[in-house]
What does this fold into?
Amino acid sequence: MGVLVVRAHGKNIFEIGSGNIGATNVKRAIGTRGAVLVFLLDLLKGLAPALVARNLFPERQELWMAAGFAAVIGHTFSPFLKFKGGKGVSTALGMAIGSTPLVALIAFALFIVTLQVFRFVSLSSIIAVISTIPLCLALNQSPWVSVGYGFLTVYIIFKHRSNIARLRDGTESKFSWRSKPTDDDPGDGGQSLAVAVSPKPPSSAPGERKNLPSGDDLAS
It folds into this structure.
């Protein structure tokens, strides 16, 4: 959705910032309103199929998750983008809301708290998705649901492997809230409505796109 929303403003998301299609890079390209729109649309990608499956198979919670998980995979490996895409966290959140609302609520609250403390969206996303497994066990969810979240956790961590490397090296960017679009911000390691402020990328020659680390997670 980030591609279409930014294109509607006459810009190419792949030539801006990290080149990622998630909400962070959309905010970098066209500002907060566009980022919020993309975040919600990406969330709906996971929520809608989970709710449809829930309506069709009211007793099969694992199928609700499977439908939403399929949307996560489709979002991260879109055939319309040469099997590229975002990192799937927003879409996974939509899946969780449709399948296990209480797990989704607690995990999202943990994401917000972790983000406020550490200011790394990637780290917050990873911690939140890992928390879904013990949450499922504590809330007596179906064993198949716990297994499903196990697969989701591995998948999301895999999509964040470059962010993990930067966190280990101390080069992952932190975030702050901004209101205006800019083409100069580096990838912030996560797709939220936050935009990275450090480290600053090296300057480039006019017309030359900066080689920035991609890391827009949450809905991406």
Summary: Confidence is low (pLDDT under 50) at residues 183-219. DSSP finds nine helices and two strands in the chain. The first helix runs from residue 2 to 7.
